[in-house]
Amino acid sequence: MRRIALFIVVMALPVLGYAQGDDFGTILSVEGDKKINKKFSVGIEAEMRTRDDVQTVDRWSGGVSASYKLLPWLKASAGYTLLYENNERISYYEEGDGKVKKGVVNVGDPKKCGQYWGMRHRFQVSLTGSYKFGGLELSLRERWQYTYRPEYTVDERWSYFDDDYDGEEHTYRGKGKNVLRSRLQAEYKIRNFPATPYANVELFNAWSLEKTRYTVGCDWKINKKHSVGLFYRYQTVNDDDDNEPNRHSIGLGYQFKF
Q1: What are 142-181's pLDDT values in tens digits?
Q2: How far apart are CA 118 and CA 217, in angstroms?
Q3: What is the pLDDT of residues 110-122, one digit of tens each?
Q4: Per-residue CA distances from 65 to 44, 81, 82, 85 (Å)
Q5: Gap between the Cα atoms of 161 and 104, Å rounded
Q6: What gap in Å lies between CA 7 and CA 23, rounded to an integer?
């Protein structure tokens, strides 16, 4: 137990430097995995996330995946996820806006906000390479992710200037987005002990670095078919069109094999 605690603390040091995050949320998940043979397996998952200091449900999601072991140290996988999200789309004043020219507001001030529940479709393909040093395993996962948000029309939006709803329809056009996600992870397996601590850092790139996620956690094996996991995550946002803030999250997951 001392080795587990020391491992988590050491790997968490880069994360703890960002103690003043903008938001706090939770992540609850359930995952199932079915091994078809020694190389091929399929899986399902469901997840719920919260934001705004756990006061708002951020999204629900469900997905399916398949993975194939190409080599003892290399695995390929692909999957699809359907996301049902609580969107908060904020627009900002720009140079050409009339109120900016008149000096009533400044460039970059929030203009209008549209809130609605909508779906997104996500497809992904991954390659994961791993290497073991005794009980320590290092892995690098490179994932291409494509997400499509269908067109959606809201009846009205909130106007920050008027402090009221504008009473006008507004359509958010459909949009697709490609992201490369690179994750470096270290986990430490202790012989004859059910808990496996881990830590990872993940970079989200879409022509530039958009997000960085730091995660430390521990998976606890209950028996051969069931396990639970607990983790802490800190996400920093550099440039993202979803207006996400930096966020601290606590996650709890349940995994089973069938």
Answers
A1: 999 999 999 999 999 999 999 999 999 999 999 999 999 9
A2: 31
A3: 999 999 999 999 9
A4: 6, 9, 12, 20
A5: 9
A6: 26
Beta bridge pairs of residue 205: 180, 209
Is residue 95 packed enough to be buried (19+ CB in 10 Å), middle (13-18) or exposed (0-12)? exposed
**Cα(129)–Cα(138) distance, rounded to whole angstroms?**
8
H/E stretch holding 200: strand 195-205
Of 2-6, 131-135, 168-172, 234-238, the range with the lowest mean pLDDT is: 2-6
* Residue 149 Cα distances to 66, 82, 97, angstroms: 23, 11, 27
Query: How many residues does this entry show for the chain?
Result: 258
Amino acid 211 reads: K
Phi, psi of 100 (to 5 degrees): -70, -45
Contact by Cβ (8 Å): 178, 199: no
Residues whose CB falls within 8 Å of the CB of residue 101, separated by 6 or more in sequence, listed in order: none
